[in-house]
Design brief:
Elements (H helix, E strand, L loop, with lengths): L1 H10 L7 H25 L5 H19 L4 H21 L1
Helix pairs in contact: 3-4
């Protein structure tokens, strides 16, 4: 779908200095990736209440670190460590 929309300007003449159209085509890949990945975040670790709460905690940590403008590598490492640690807690109960 993104390839079709990204190649659309080849076949349809769109004004090059139209900022709204340019912003649309720039944001399209990020939007599609978000729509594809976001629902799987909740089901990738399980479907019990604890698993969903664990994912929400991980998402909150990622959002907090993102707003603090932390390095992406650190965000990934910390979020994986938190999800893993919470998974170990589930196993001990």
């Amino acid at each position: 779908m993104t390839v079709i929309l990204r190649t659309l300007p080849i076949f349809v003449k769109i004004p090059e200095n139209n900022l709204k159209v340019n912003k649309f085509f720039e944001a399209l890949p990020y939007t599609v990736l978000t729509v594809l990945v976001f629902p799987d975040i909740f089901t990738s670790t399980g479907s019990t209440n604890f698993d969903i709460i664990r994912v929400l905690i991980g998402m909150a940590i990622v959002a907090y670190l993102t707003f603090r403008k932390t390095n992406l590598g650190i965000i990934i490492i910390v979020s994986i460590a938190v999800i893993y640690f919470l998974g170990m807690l589930k196993g001990s109960f």
